[in-house]
Structure formats: structure tokens, C-alpha cells
């Protein structure tokens, strides 16, 4: 008979394989992180967010973009800590700039302030007494779902503004 911990681990592995197409090496990396005696929920959360969003942790990020992210974090009133999320954003901003789309810091601060109440609500829904396997699986599923919603909302906002500016863009 399997213990609840084993069932939770199997559910996590199945989610990683089936829903995210993770390799055995990727699964081992996450489960090894979870199994470390000093494992922290915040580290597991960041790893799961990378898997769910397809972003990568980039150690060598553009210093200017990282400084821009640091300034945005400060202006948003968020804790000034090194994080995978900050490096991932700096990397995404650099890739965007190379493609010709440069985001000003005040634009990023606007995004941060708009997202803040949603992130607070999301974090309040994380059950602190859950095992890291249960937490990881929940974060994977929720982050992937949320990413799809954010992308679709962004698309809807742009479509709506384009139609508002030029009603001939509306299709009947």
C-alpha cells in the first residue's frame, strides 16, 4: 500500500510528464529540490513557475535590464531580494529590446501595481501546511492556467483598444 506521500509524488510526476512534457532529468531536478532537507517553499514555487511559463533562469542577465527590474521592484514596494523571477523578467526585457520593443520602467511599474492585488490573493490561497509535492503540483497547474488567462486578457485588451480607436476593425 502506498502512503499519501507516495501518491502525492506520483501525482506530481504525472502532472510534470503529461501536462508539461518534462523530461526525466527535469522531474529529477524538481523532486531533488523538494527532497532537500533545507527545501524552501519559495524556491519550489519559483522552479514551478519556470516550468509552467516556459521561462528560464538566466544567471548572466543584462546589467541594465536587471537594474531596471530592481528599480521597478523598489517603486512597486516589493522586497528587494535576488530572485529567479527578477532574472527571468530582465532576460525577457532584454529579448524584447533586441526585437525592438523597449519597456520603460514606469510602464513596468504600472504592470506591477496592477498585478499586485492578484498576486496577494493567489499567495493567500497557498496552503502552508501542504507538502511540497502537493504545493508544487498546485503551483504548476495554477501558474500554467494563470499564464494562459494573462495572455488571453492581453490579447483581448489589445483587440478591444484597436476596435475602439477604429470601429471599422470590428467584424460583424
TrEMBL record:
Source domain of life: Bacteria
Biological processes annotated in GO: regulation of DNA-templated transcription
Residues of the HTH merR-type domain: 1-33
InterPro entries given in the database record: DNA-bd_dom_put_sf (IPR009061), MerR-type_HTH_dom (IPR000551)
GO molecular function terms listed in the Swiss-Prot or TrEMBL record: DNA binding
SUPFAM superfamilies to which the protein is assigned, alphabetical: Putative DNA-binding domain (SSF46955)
Protein's recorded name: HTH merR-type domain-containing protein
Organism of this sequence: Microbacterium testaceum (Aureobacterium testaceum)
